[in-house]
Design brief:
2 helices, about 90 residues, alpha+beta, DUF3567, single chain
């Protein structure tokens, strides 16, 4: 897990999955690499996990940010739109 962004309002983590399949046809053949992003809305105590096509779209957004160096306000506005989809409360174990 890599922390990509952390502010008073949001935290964004990139979760990577690069495990090898135990029952793969060829030894050492990797399974479908699935990765995702967790966005935590600290203000409302909610989180959302993006994977699949949502993760790909978010990865494109990150690439665009790397190319253009956005302001914190621009990043937070984008994260706010994703956080609006969040339904899962943040639970600490």
């Amino acid at each position: 897990m890599n922390l990509l962004y952390d502010s008073d309002s949001f935290a964004v983590m990139h979760l990577l999955a690069n495990a090898e399949a135990a029952d793969a046809a060829q030894p050492g053949e990797p399974v479908l690499a699935r990765h995702g992003f967790e966005i935590v809305d600290k203000r409302h105590g909610k989180e959302i996990y993006l994977d699949g096509s949502w993760a790909e779209l978010f990865q494109q957004q990150i690439s665009a940010w790397q190319a253009s160096t956005p302001t914190q306000e621009e990043v937070e506005d984008t994260l706010e739109r994703y956080a609006a989809l969040a339904q899962q409360p943040v639970v600490v174990h």
